[in-house]
Specification:
The structure is a homodimer.
Chain A (H helix, E strand, L loop, with lengths): L11 H13 L21 E5 L2 E4 L4 E4 L14 H11 L11 H12 L5 E5 L2 H16 L3 E5 L19 H4 L2 E4 L4 H11 L3 E6 L15 H14 L2 E5 L22 E4 L10 E5 L4 H6 L10 H16 L2 H23 L3 E4 L6 E4 L6 H12 L2 E2 L14 H22 L3
């Protein structure tokens, strides 16, 4: 059980692995799963995962509210997904060509996602976004891309948020607009003067370190109208949100269809896969570019994706994630109120985001996150969290037992607000 | 057995899958495993793989001399690799953080590859090459990269051989030289006028559609000297060749050490993994860039890599691949001579390349490849082939029984030469 928070949890094996890692990995770790920039209560290395829980290398158990930053949507080691992977691995994975499940998966995605007439597959979310832009450029003959300022579309040179190692030319084709501000998109398009290949946009604003912002349907419709008017492709970056908001595309409820969408993270419940989905008019451009990868035709991740997407709807996973997300959000709000700590929760409940009011340098959220880790709950101080369909009401309640103490720690350190 | 060639092998299931694929995948397939540009005797979809053999969806068996374009180095479904993957999947794969095997793998690579002091991991060979260039740019503050004209370094916009969907800016930082021609590298460096971040080079020239060319040790030493003189990083692209020529880096036998090397394909025997290896002076630059991916910390492919790299040396896999590659090459040469067909075999025997003399439009090699496929051997008409350590003398002899008929078909169609 995780109800008993214990800041003196053993961390010896993790510490030894971190020492070894510093000898053979730059900085000891890199990227979004690095614990370097997290409070010291977070482990770096994990030994085991099952359903809604993860265990670090020292055997400490956690309710996992990060889901590896999204990929784990049915919960860790979901039986149907693992069975599909095992069955596929027993016959073949990286073969002389793709397996039949590639066709099944493309058919399933085309059936589920309303704008999609076809699918291509890759390995990273960055691959999928980059391919969308290449297809848009091939289709339009234009070069420029309009992207929301501060949005994360992957860590390729054109998109990584850190410019070290990036050339000015890597960004030369990107013009920036403000999410939910159509006038800023029009201005960016005007600045690109007839050379716009694509407008890329996330289903909602989920920039790390900021309040999340749902899309204004009028903004989405405006983007569609703009793209139609100037002959650009509308690209929806579903990498982070895909399948957590809907069993189809994230904008289907508001009735706006992109021309291209980029998917990855959750589509195979943690197995490495990305997908580009597109509408029929872009199929020819899609087949005119040359993109490929050594592992893009791997059968096991595709079998995992078929099992994942099937199970998501069979289990009514979106409704389940929404319900547990709301339970968590309401619990957090009540706890913060009781503790006299002002918080701001934004974004879809399936992808919770919690900010402490007046917490300019994330000091409160770091203290909160560290206290949660010490108490057996993995959240993130600056990034949205992720609910999986494996999360039960009891899991939420277990998590809340820890967050209550974490709020108390914030109150004690920083006072009320 | 594959000795009995049969051009009327059943292909109904493959044909039906191709029809379905054309409805939901642009052009029916894309990338390097597409059968669209191959003779009609090649299947598109595969059902099963084991050791040196693959089976298409209609149950036809083939000796696999392509190894999925390199990833399969120990043979399909190698027991030690599969056991490592199963064991890791039974505990966790895409978790809240990396597993201990990430450290073990980094340590193993640093131990095996002489220039390497550290390792980072990604998913695609393209990722690894791009990260090398980003690190070189971060370290030097320079932008330009010198690359061999016609070399394949992946399908990212800066490197894909097809420029559809690519902007001029994507290539603006790349200057081209001629492999094995140091004067051309000096000229490219002079043209880049003090702004060279890196020189990227393959261990040997393995451009598709051309004779392969081993590196001139003086050229390799010259690149090292040039990079030292102008303060650029020497990047060795080991993606295709890595671990087929040596159990360490491909240039260790000639004594030239790069600053950075990019690995992928064979390092995990088909599981999706890429690695960047670097020398100590570049560790700080490596930790200053932001690169990451949703699946880059997956434990199972790292466990597969530890098992693969361990098994490679335990099995003396390089010697085995070399020996079978020589047996194949000598057999092909004798058959071609008997058939009165002039061929040119180039490159390391572990990565065979066969060209028909005077075969300008690849007509002979297409006929030959199609006849091989019909007779139960997978080769490629334009690209180098790959020998795996699972290939036995009997497998080579089985393959040669088919190639003998394929040479006869070439002789019959095109006459002697």
């Amino acid at each position: 059980m995780t109800r008993v928070a214990n800041v003196s949890r053993t961390r010896e094996i993790d510490a030894a692995l971190r020492r070894r890692a510093r000898e053979v990995i730059p900085g000891g770790m890199y990227g979004h799963l690095s614990a370097n920039n997290l409070p010291e209560e977070y482990p770096q290395f994990y030994a085991r995962s099952e359903g809604s829980r993860v265990w670090d290398v020292d055997g400490n158990e956690y309710v996992d509210l990060m889901c590896s930053f999204g990929p784990v949507i049915l919960g860790h080691r979901h039986p149907a997904v693992e069975a599909a992977v095992s069955a596929q691995l027993a016959t073949g994975d990286t073969q002389a060509g793709p397996a039949p499940c590639m066709v099944e998966l493309a058919e399933l995605l085309v059936e589920r996602v309303s704008h999609a007439d076809w699918a291509m597959f890759a390995k990273n979310g960055s691959d999928a976004n980059t391919i969308c832009l290449m297809i848009a450029r091939a289709a339009t003959g234009n070069n420029k891309v309009l992207a929301a300022r501060g949005a994360y579309h992957g860590s390729a040179p054109w998109s990584t948020p850190v410019v070290r190692g990036v050339t000015p030319e890597d960004r030369a084709s990107v013009q920036y607009y403000t999410f939910n501000d159509l006038a800023s998109v029009e201005a960016a398009a005007a600045h690109a003067a007839g050379d716009v290949a694509a407008v890329i946009v996330s289903p909602f604003k989920h920039d790390a370190g900021f309040d999340q912002e749902l899309v204004d349907p009028a903004f989405a419709r405006g983007l569609r109208g703009l793209c139609d008017r100037i002959g650009a492709a509308l690209v929806l970056d579903e990498v982070r949100a895909g399948f957590r908001l809907n069993h189809g595309g994230s904008w289907e409820t508001i009735g706006v269809e992109p021309d291209l969408s980029a998917w990855s993270k959750a589509i195979a419940n943690g197995y490495a896969l990305a997908a580009v989905l597109g509408s029929a008019p872009l199929a020819e451009a899609a087949s005119s570019i040359f993109v490929t990868g050594s592992f893009w035709y791997q059968a096991a991740p595709m079998a995992a994706a078929v099992a994942t997407i099937t199970a998501l709807r069979e289990q009514s996973a979106v409704a389940s994630m929404l319900q547990r997300g709301i339970r968590l959000r309401e619990g957090l709000q009540a706890q913060a109120r009781s503790a006299g700590v002002a918080i701001c929760q934004t974004g879809p409940p399936q992808m919770p985001n919690l900010r402490f009011v007046g917490d300019e340098n994330f000091e409160r959220s770091r203290l909160f996150g560290g206290a949660c880790a010490a108490g057996g709950v993995i959240v993130h101080p600056r990034h949205n969290w992720f609910v999986s369909a494996a999360l039960s009401d009891d899991d939420v309640d277990d998590a809340l037992a820890t967050t209550e103490m974490a709020f108390a720690a914030v109150r004690e350190q920083f006072g009320g607000s």
